[in-house]
């Protein structure tokens, strides 16, 4: 099945959908990473999480970021700061291919997010898609209104104790596509050790709840090894790392090579 939304196609047609976290409001950073990566059909990225919850990104950056990412054949998924209708509407009107909301605690919370993402009669999204189609290559204005908007991905984060306790009911909400685990908040909100038994049991329960109703399960990962482990556990969608982690680690690694403290096996030329 092919969709104007790359991530929707990737979730249907590939075993794992890879993404990364964009925290800097830079289309140049997003495009630089995506231009160096293979197409998602060859195992590259199918989504970028545009982080307006904890990143330096805000409302006025959405349009440019969504367009840059969308025109690389990849889906911009905007994590809005909170599950407010007006925040979701602004991100969708600026061309988000999907919305992610933090801290979903109940089926009612999830149903509201679905409603905010869809036009009536399904939901309550206000109408004004003047700019939204621009981030979908080849989609004409009427095509966005008639078809594409209904395919935008609805992703909620499960990262609290009530979220875990209600996760089977949340997963069953119609129109919800993905349960996304925020492992850091999950541990803190549950007041359990990150990586400990209760934390891992909660993660497993969320994964199973999603799969038991045919929904997708996703998780934030702190690097490739973490992602690998979660793929082997059965996750459908993993983030690899963040832009800032790569910049910080990469710069430090080269500094250590320059100081003779570690070896580089890469022969680099140019920038
Ligand atoms: C968390 O770990 O809490 C997240 O939301 C990932 O960014
Ligand atoms: Mg979180």
UniProtKB/TrEMBL annotation:
Occurrences of domain HpcH/HpaI aldolase/citrate lyase (ranges): 44-246
Molecular function terms, GO-annotated: aldehyde-lyase activity; metal ion binding
InterPro entries the record matches: Aldolase/citrate-lyase_domain (IPR005000), HpcH-HpaI_aldolase (IPR050251), Pyrv/PenolPyrv_kinase-like_dom (IPR015813), Pyrv_kinase-like_dom_sf (IPR040442)
Gene Ontology CC: cytoplasm
Keywords: Lyase, Metal-binding
Family: Belongs to the HpcH/HpaI aldolase family.
Protein name (Swiss-Prot/TrEMBL): HpcH/HpaI aldolase/citrate lyase domain-containing protein
């Amino acid at each position: 099945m092919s969709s104007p939304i790359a991530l929707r196609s990737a979730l249907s047609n590939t075993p794992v959908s890879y993404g990364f976290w964009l925290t800097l409001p830079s289309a140049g950073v997003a495009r630089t990473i995506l231009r160096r990566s293979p197409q998602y059909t060859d195992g590259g990225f199918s989504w970028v999480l545009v982080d307006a919850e904890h990143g330096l990104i805000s409302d006025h950056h959405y349009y440019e970021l969504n367009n840059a990412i969308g025109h690389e054949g990849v889906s911009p998924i905007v994590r809005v700061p909170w599950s407010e209708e007006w925040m979701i509407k602004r991100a969708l009107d600026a061309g988000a291919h999907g919305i992610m909301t933090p801290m979903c605690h109940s089926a009612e919370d999830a149903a509201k997010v679905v409603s905010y993402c869809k036009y009536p009669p399904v939901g309550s999204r206000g109408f004004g898609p003047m700019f939204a189609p621009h981030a979908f290559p080849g989609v004409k204005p009427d095509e966005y209104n008639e078809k594409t908007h209904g395919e935008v991905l609805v992703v909620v984060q499960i990262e609290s104790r009530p979220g875990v306790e209600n996760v089977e009911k949340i997963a069953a909400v119609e129109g919800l596509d993905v349960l996304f685990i925020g492992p850091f908040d999950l541990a803190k909100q549950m007041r359990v050790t990150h990586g400990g038994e209760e934390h891992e049991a909660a993660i497993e329960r969320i994964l199973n709840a999603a799969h038991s109703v045919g929904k997708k399960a996703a998780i934030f990962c702190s690097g490739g090894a973490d992602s690998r482990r979660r793929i082997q556990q059965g996750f459908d969608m993993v983030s690899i790392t963040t832009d800032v982690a790569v910049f910080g680690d990469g710069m430090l690694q080269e500094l250590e090579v320059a100081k003779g403290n570690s070896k580089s096996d890469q022969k680099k030329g140019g920038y």
